[in-house]
Amino acid sequence: MPRDRRTDDEQENHERWLVSYADFITLLFAFFVVMYAISQVNEGKYRVLSDTLSSAFRHVPGTSSGVQATVNPNAPVPIVVPFRRPNFGIKSDETQRIKKEKLRNMAKEINAALAPLVKEGQVRITEGALGITVDINASVLFAPGDARLDVGAVQALRAVADVLAPTDFPVTVEGHTDNTPINTPQFPSNWELSGMRASSVVRLFIESGVNSRRLTATGYADQRPVDDNATPEGRARNRRVAITIESRVPDNPVETRLP
To answer: Which end of the chain is more exposed for a tag (fewer CB within 10 A), N or C?
Structure first.
């Protein structure tokens, strides 16, 4: 009596899942072996694993039913270590302490160099979240409506530059005005005046040995007042140059922007 082909086919199809199941179990076993290996790793073998896996998956043969891979149980298991990115952004407590101490020493040196102006109230030195800020009244540095440094101001700023030159801290120089409009051929508005005043200070710092990569010149016109522009005293305070010694030490150079 002939065999029932339908019965044979059904039996063959019924057992075929065991092949896929066996492949799955083999791959799962290999996965856990690798996971176990990662728990006890050697930094020098990290790239070995990466190259091995990349090479293996590039050459795995494909079939219509899926991907098949062969695991050699006698092959050595690569020992790897996860790559750890260098932690450049986080400073140790000791580094932070040293940095703050340097900034405070710089503030003391600048205060000593500008002592007469500090005593007269023409210079204010403060410590904030960004670092040390030296506010210098514009009347000490410039004639009204002008961006050329006075002869007497040059000496004071060179003393500040002598403190800044040996350090690595970024320095931002900001020019500020009051709200009194200006309209001259050289300065159509307070924006040009404030920017050129900041640039004049930056150029003097560069000539005095401060690395230009650390310097930034910015003009804010009358947009950041520190006092009320309704009074002559308030306007006088708002006309200033602010030199901020930033507390961060960047990995990349600081751009210098000159109007």
So the answer is: N
- Are residues 134 and 59 part of one domain? no
Count up the domains in the chain and report the number.
2
Q: How many CB atoms lie within 10 A of CB 184?
A: 11
What's the CA gap between 240 and 255, in Å, rounded? Answer: 23
- What is the tens place of the pLDDT at every residue in 182-195? 999 999 999 999 99
Give the domain extent around 186: 93-246
Distance CA 75, CA 65 (A): 27
Model pTM score: 0.61
